[in-house]
Amino acid sequence: MWPGIVLVAIVVGAAYSLREFPGLTIFSPMILAVIIGMVFANVVGVAPNTKAGIGFSQKSLLRFAIVMLGFQLTIGQVLSIGASGFGIVALTLGATFLFTITLGRFLGVERRLAELIAAGTSICGASAIVATNAVTSARDEDVAYAVACITLFGTVAMLGYPLLAPALGLDQHHFGLWAGASIHEVAQVIGAAFQNGPEAGEIGTVAKLTRVALLAPMVIALGLVVRRGSGGQDGASRPPLPLFVVGFVVVVLFNSFVGIPDAVRPTVSFVTTLMLSMGLAAMGLHTNVSEIRSRGLRPLFLALSAFVFIAGFSLMLVKLAG
Q1: DSSP class per residue in 213-226
Q2: 19: burial class by Cβ within 10 Å (0-12, 13-18, 19+)?
Q3: pTM of this structure
C-alpha cells in the first residue's frame, strides 16, 4: 500500500503548501487536497501500484478521521447555545435536508448525488458528505461534485455574510448563530463569524459544532431510509449504523465526561484535519472529471437552491428568536 499512501501524502503536502499563497488561506487543506488530487489524476494519471494505498486512505483513514472529529465536541458545548439556539440549528438542518432531497427529485438529480449535496449543505460540508456516502454508496465522481458545490457556495457565504450583517441588523450573538447554523464548512464558519467580532466567532463555532454533533443521528436515519428503500436487500452487507459513526459518538461522550489534556488538543485537531485531507486527496485521485461533466448543471442548481434556502430559513428563525 505504500506507493499509494506516499502519493496521497504528496498531494496533501502540496495542499498545505498552496494554502500559504495569498488569497488561498480561506480554503481548508481538505478542499485543496481533493482539487489537487483530481487535477493530478486527470492530467498526469495514477499508476496501478498506487491504487491499494489510495483505497486505504479513502476508506479507512477517512472514517477514522471522522471518529477523531469527536474530540472537538462536548455535550456541554452543544448545551451552551441554549434551547433556542439548538432548536434553530436542528430545525434548519432538518428542513434543509428535506428541501434539498425533494427539490432534487423534482429536478431529476440522481438520488445519491442529491443526498450528498443535502448532507453537505445541511450538516458539515465535506465531512458530512463522506459520512453520508457510507450509507448511500455513491460514486466517487458524485462525492467530488458534491464537495465542489459545497466549497463554492460555502466560500460565497464566508465572504458575503459579514457584508450583510449591518444591513440585516444582526448583533454579534445573532450573527454568530446565523453563520453557525447555515454556512457549510467549519473553517468557513470561523472565517465569517470572527470577522464580526469575538462573540460572534465563539457563538458561530459552537453552533457549527452542534451541527457536526447531529451528523450521527442524520447518518443513522438516512441509513434506515436507504435500507427500507432497497427492500432490505442491503441489510446484511451494509448496516444502517456504520461502525465509524458509533466511534464518533463514543469519542464525543469520552470527550464530554473524561476529556484529553488541553496541551494535546491542538495536535489532535491537526492530525484529524491531516487525515481528512488524506482521505479527500485519495477521493480526488479516484475521480474522473468527464464523469462530473456528464452530470450537467442541474446538481449545481440544486446546490445553489439549497444554499439560498439554508441561509434564508436560518435567518428567519434567528430573527424570530431574537
Answers
A1: HTHHHHHHHHHHHH
A2: middle
A3: 0.76
pLDDT in tens, 194-212: 888 888 888 888 888 888 8
> What is the pLDDT at residue 229?
60
Q: What is the 3-state secondary structure (H, E, C) of 197-261?
A: CHHHHHHHHHHHHHHHHCHHHHHHHHHHHHHHHCCCCCCCCCCCCCHHHHHHHHHHHHHHHCCCC
Other C-beta atoms closer than 10 Å to the C-beta of 143 total 27
Which one, of 292, 267, 285, lies nearest residue 5 by Cα? 285
Nearest to 181 by CA among 309, 26, 30: 309
Q: What is the DSSP string of 45-102?
A: ---GGGHHHHHHIIIIIHHHHHHHGGGG--HHHHHHTHHHHHHHHHHHHHHHHHHHHH
> What is the distance between the alpha carbons of residues 133 and 287, in angstroms, rounded to a whole number?
15
CB atoms within 10 A of CB 126: 28
- Mean pLDDT over residues 191-196, rounded? 83
Per-residue pLDDT band for 236 (boundaries 50, 70, 90) equals: very low
Q: In the predicted model, is pLDDT for residue 240 greater than 50?
A: no
CA 73 – CA 243 distance, rounded (Å): 19
Question: Cell numbers at residue 36, please?
Answer: 489537487
